Amino acid sequence: MSEQLLEIGERAIKMAEKLGADQAEAFVGQSSSFVIDVENSAIKSAEEQHDAGIGIRTITEKKIGFAYVTTIYEDDVKEAVSRSFDLAKASIPDPEFVSLPSVSSTYPEVKGLFDKKIKELSSDGAADYVIRVIDATKETLEGRDYAIEGGIQTASSISAVVNSLGVSKSAEKTSITLYSLPIVKEGEDQTTSYEYQISRKLSDIDPEWIGENAARLTLNNLGPKTIEGGEMPVVFAPLGAGAILGRGFAGAVSAEEVQKGRSYISDAFGDKIASEIVNITDDALLHSGIGSRSFDGEGHPAQRTSITESGVFKNLLHNSYTANKDDVMNTGNASRPSYSGLPSISTSNFVLSPGKGTLDDLISEIDRGVLCNRTGDRPNMTTGDLSALLLEGFYIRNGEIQHPLKNTLVGINMRDLLTRINRVGEDTRITFSMVTPSFVIDNATVTSG
Predict the structure, then answer these.
(1) Domain-by-domain residue ranges, the chain?
(2) How many C-beta atoms surround the C-beta of residue 178 within 10 A?
(3) Hey, what CATH class is 116-157+172-220 in?
(4) 12 pLDDT exceeds 90?
């Protein structure tokens, strides 16, 4: 199938060149996914989806057009090419466009991105994983008043990128996500939490661990209280750390955001922006990584890019457009989740290098502070100001967790947060495209109540 998609892309490029395009690019995708959702211990829905299509980008006299179709039949592809070229001719020239990527002599080999067992997992097999995670959650919550939501999603995809400068690459990937979300009621108190695993390998998924941990986390959230606020240390567990760095810092190092003045670190390239123990890498070559790849959404070779070294801001993340605009090396961070959109910039696997100590070790060193297990908030990307609601947080006193928190916020500017990281743990966890251990900031404003 990879060869077939490449052939479709190459024919589309020839069509565009015949129409008079200076450059052209085809992104062809085909995917299959299976989703099961469970509610109140019964299957709520089960859905199998298949998708295929092609997106065409054409350039003529620095004018860019884009069109896509949700099939890969030749007549439809031809129509998409024609629409793309017509749109290019009608567009306004972009003086900052230089070129699409040209073919490279070397592309890295990245292993562990495809698992035949996921691709061939039957609906009964997928349902069995959901049943196991629900049963494990129930067993841990026995005797409680509870409801449980859960689900599984498997995906298998093939994508191909072809352009008029010699790029012709394809890749096949698989992924699986399994989760449990219990809701527990005790008197007037009702709380929830969740646990999940995501991987490119079926053997990495442990339904019993997910179910037991989801239940334990939910029970730990019973009886939340407010505290007296003030300036105090904050411990970020891996999921909280992943949200803060993955949403709050990864977007700030996008060259597009910096070039447009929308990043709070636009003026900090080459400066020390974090403490010396903060080493962050964007690693597209990570074995079995959720964001791993041998080439990006434009067919440029993927790589490992240092973002901070000993706290010093070393590199931005680029696609071909931003790299050409700044006359720097393309880092291969063109992101294209689907054939239906133009490439943007995003991380691959955003990795905070681990330090030493478990989460319990980090907590034991705090006299008075809070633990952030989860937050859904992100900073203002222009100013860096962050006000993060602790969706799951705990009060720490004398090195021990005292109780869960409610109505509690952590306020800090991201520039200050990065410089105040004084401990990094070793409990690394994959949280989608973020790979991070726990870390501690020595001071932030905590408000509660």
Answers:
(1) 116-157+172-220, 230-448
(2) 25
(3) alpha beta
(4) yes
